[in-house]
Design goal:
The chain has 177 residues and is an all-alpha fold. It has helices at 4-9, 13-24, 27-50, 55-69, 71-81, 101-132, 135-152, 154-165, 167-176. It folds into 2 domains: 1-86, no CATH class; 93-177. Helix 8 (154-165) runs antiparallel to helix 9 (167-176).
Length: 177
Amino acid sequence: MPSAKDIVAHADPEAVKNFTEFISAWWTPIFLFSYTAGIIFFGLGWYYINSDHKRSYGIVCVILSVFLSCLPTIINIFSKTLFNSMAPDKLSYYAPESEYQIYITLAVRGVQLIGLLAVIRSIFFFKDHALEQKPQLLYNGLTYFLGGITCLNFVTVAQFLGKEIGGELEYITSNIF
């Protein structure tokens, strides 16, 4: 049975180019939909975690919301591992060619790792809140979850802030990212 790499390698280049152009026009709506669905599943997860008999549904919904909130990163991972694509695209981070490239990439990956650990820790806060019914655990879980999602999408958030605030911050983010 042929692998995904074999199928992509033997595909018509013009068809792949047309498909890529078609999909690239839909990235923003797809990501907005996935973020919205992630927030909805997070709310469902919070509701189910607080209910007495469906806590496993709640944990599944929270995990699903994490995956939906990190859809650009997941697509980037699949494009690099499954399809062996190393070409730069709008979904992935590539440090600009400079003598500091390795340090910038290391810093970005470190922030993303901290974000992943924060999301995992938030799941434990939600579980503890479901068992003990302390509001402080819920607020801590929400803080860790939102901070973790922000760290996982660090480059996008930094570019967004640079464009929104403008001035010197826009210049710095355009040169670094």
